[in-house]
Amino acid sequence: MLDKLSNLFIIILRTLDIDNLGRVLKKRREQLDLSLRDVEEKISVSNAYLSQIENEKITQPAPKILLKLSDFYELSYSKLMNLAGHPLETKLNKKIFFRTSNGLKEISRDEEQELLHYLKFMRNRKVHS
Question: Does a structural domain hold residue 88?
Answer without folding.
Answer: no
